[in-house]
Amino acid sequence: MTTKLTRRHALLAGAAAPLVALAATPARAKADMKGMTTPLFSRFKHGDFEVTTLLAGTRPVEEPQSIFGMNVSAEDFAAVSDAAHLPTNVAQFFFTPTVVNTGEELVLFDTGLNAEGITAALAAAGYTPDQVDTVVITHMHGDHIGGLNSDAGATFPNARYVTGSTEHNHWSAAGNEGFDGKVKPLNDKFTFLDDGGSVASGITALAAHGHTPGHMGYMIESGGKGLVLIADTANHYVWSLAKPDWEVKFDMDKAAAAQTRRKMLGMIAADRLPFIGYHMPFPATGFVEADGDGFRYVPSSYQLMLG
Ligand SMILES: [Zn+2]
């Protein structure tokens, strides 16, 4: 029997030769598949402060247009998504509290969906819940107040709590299960502030109403450097930045939220400040550029590592 060797066969035969040789050596143990993973914290120096973003939770959510882009056509939603290499059938959500060590106190902004998520991320970052001196609640949605307590009681036993007075007043009168279960038991430990109010030296409230009636962002300043914590002023890095007027399901006053989005993002872009966004992709830090009638998210690379 004769075998015709084509050039392709000859190449394959040649390529196979080293494998034959390897087969004579003992097989290596196969490594296990580890599954997808993400880091739980990211820390950088900001003036004399240390700032740590904490991934308290992340999950895929289907049909994102039912949340973002409620007032636009499916075609428009698909075009903006496609331009950013994003699918339209599912989005990955991130829940990212931030803890700031001022050198004098440990200030935690928001608490995630539940106590397990925030305590796990804090532990990964090297903090215990009893070290938290101040908990700032940007607004009273469940994904921000969920970690305040659990069946075991208050998650942060030594903390005082700070939030916007308008926000607290609204939810106090709303008959809301989340507020009544999570915030109300801590009411006597809360103090309240308005636009320009101070949480600690260098940490100042920025009124950002619209998402909720008393929603607040914060300016974090140290060593002459600014950093803006926008909380839920923008909830998606593409849909909310490129199209600030697209209606978002979770914005309670949609027109006011869009106006606040334009104002806050415009300020961050004009002043070229870094910002932290609670729902930006982890580590949730970046910059904003004006882009056409909207904005563009510029994720931080190594800028924040330079101190
Ligand atoms: Zn939120």
Provide structural commentary.
The chain is of the alpha+beta class. The chain is built from eight helices and 18 strands. It has a seven-stranded mixed β-sheet. Strands 12-13-14-15-16-17-18 form a seven-stranded mixed β-sheet. The chain has a two-stranded antiparallel sheet with strand order 3-4. It is globular and about 70 Å long. The termini are far apart. The mean pLDDT is 94.
Keywords for this structure?
seven-stranded mixed beta sheet, 307 residues, alpha+beta, binds zinc ion
Put simply, the count of helices is 8
Task: Give the overall pLDDT as a whole number.
Answer: 94
**N- to C-terminal distance:** 74 Å
**Estimated share of beta-strand residues:** 25-35%
Q: Flag low-confidence runs.
A: none
* Sheet with the most strands, sense and barrel status: 7 strands, mixed
Label the overall shape: globular
Radius of gyration: 24 Å
Helical fraction equals 25-40%
- Ligand list: zinc ion
The secondary-structure element order is HEEEHEEEHEHEEEHHEEEEEHHEEE
